[in-house]
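Inputs:
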Amino acid sequence: MCGINAPIPISDAHLDDLRRIILKTVNKDQVLILSNIPRVPTSITSVLRNISRRYNVPLSTLRRNAQILKSMNLITYGEASDFSGVELTELGRFITELTAGEEPSLLGTMVQTVSGLRPLGTVLKGLRQRVLRMVAEAGSGHLGASLSVIDILAVLYFVKMRHDPSNPEWAERDRLVLSKGHAAPALYAVLAEAGYFPQEELVSLRRLGGLLQGHPEIQIPGVDASTGSLGQGLSIAVGMALAAKMDEAPHKVYAIIGDGELDEGQIWEAALTAGHHGLDNLVAIVDRNQFQLTGRTEEVKAMEPVGEKWKSFGWEVVEADGNDPPSILDALDVCELTGGKPSAIIAHTTKGKGVSFMEGNKFSKSIPDASELARALAELA
Amino acid sequence: MESSSQLESFGRALVELGRERDDIVVLDPDVASSTKTIYFAESFPSRFIRVGISEQDMLGIASGLAAAGKTPIAVGFAMFIIGRGWEQIANSIARQRLDAKIVGTHAGLSPHADGESHQMYGDVALMRTVPNMRVVVPGDAPSAVEALRAALEYRGPVYLRLMRGSTPTVYCEDIEFEMGRANVLREGSDATVIANGIMLSRALTAAERLIGEGINVRVIDMHTIKPLDTGAIAKMAKETGAIVTAEEHSIIGGLGSAVAETLVEAIPTPMERIGIRDHFGESSRSYPELLAHVGLTPEAIAEAVRRVIERK
């Protein structure tokens, strides 16, 4: 490894910068572990059990994060974990002190948009406003399903995925297949915000000759697969993941599936295939908003226990709050640690999320009139 | 006529092509030993994907592979890959104009013993209606290999229809095979028989028999149904004044329909169609016996020629 030639800055101002950088690297659960390591050596298992109980975080999530901290040389513990104590390393002590009392705030994190660096929380409000305007303007479209999935899309495109809006065909980019293609307005709003095409295009949604078709089309810059017919996107993502494995390419493939869409048999064919091939470069995210077109999913065709189903098909399963960016990002981070298996995130969401009078009701499939639109936009201002 | 197996030749050609091009990936819905993709599997195991008995998933995977720069060839029984997979082909492949090849084997009545559950004679009609699709029905084993090569040289979705069992060899010398261009197999001026698939050799047999009656029949291999060689059809209509189509497919939506559509718009001409007349198939221990049972014989073609000449 090369030495650093420049002098290391250690003024308070630089410490603030360093703190910000570190909080983008270590996640919430990792900070939790670091700040809860006792001064006396204690077994890693009992430390993690305590944290799990106190903060209500699954033990398996903590275990994985402890492994990451160990690989980052921030903590040490022996292989026979029950008999050896966990300790902070010198670097770990420094990082822990630096991050003490800091709640990592993903919503405050500056993300790259077409209009420069902006806090993710602000970006999300703007995206929701644009989705509302697009659907109201077009006179049709799936508002509720777009609002339930938009946080997931935003975390993927603004935080997680490697992609380049100035080069949509970049071969090494991570891929995203929006299998629940009816949430196209959300995808379009995110892609425009990222800079794939001008924001002005958003008003062309569902207009004859317009760029933005009712469901995603591969001709639209940034769209990786044409979808809209439910059940087909996961197979496409499996094909992309298999191709990446053949080429030993490092990129990831994400597929977002609706919970109603799980009724389709092809989803489970693809789930079997991905499990069989151990596609650990594939992440399926189920937008578990509890509703499908004609009613609650559990009334139309009972799908619970959803997570158990994926598990039994050979997938690693992570539960997340799909409308909470930090929870989404944690889940996506955990998926990166899964070797030899595809990962499924059961993202619990609310249909129509973000607009109080649209959440979980008829607005999920109807179009707001002018006064309803104004009220909704005011809530998001 | 000599005969040989389309699938055997296809399977061997896949291996050759696999050697020439490392972008080729073959997908199998658990029928490799029947479709003969097993040879490719043995030669290139890392480029052979066993998807299990899941045609819909297979076609979606082909879409993803093509989007990632591979050239997938999905090979399954025509009834299931086309019948069950029509919408996946339309929505996941053709709509994106992806470079994926779809091969339907055991087409028509060729799985004679299996009966109507496995006999597919609507596949050409189904594939013709999908925009961006090309549809190719080779008449013998050598031209099946050429059709496969042509399909791979073309960038875009192609449906290649093959049959089970052995097929009389029509092309003995070097084949000039161009997708979308009909081949004249026999000259004649009294009528034209436009055929493809297994009916091509039967059309040639019919033409031989008609010589004794003083009838000279032209025989055309219309191996590509989409894009259709409409220029050739108009030319044959003008020069011979009578057309007979012969196909191992439903008379609804296949070669006969495509030719009729062209004639009606370009040059109305007396025409007869030989094909499966809107009924399901059935089991038979012999393929020729089953073809005869549903009227797909040289004699039926000859009779249609006599009828159509009467109508000139």
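Residues 111 and 117 of chain A are 5 Å apart (CA to CA). Flag for discussion at group meeting.
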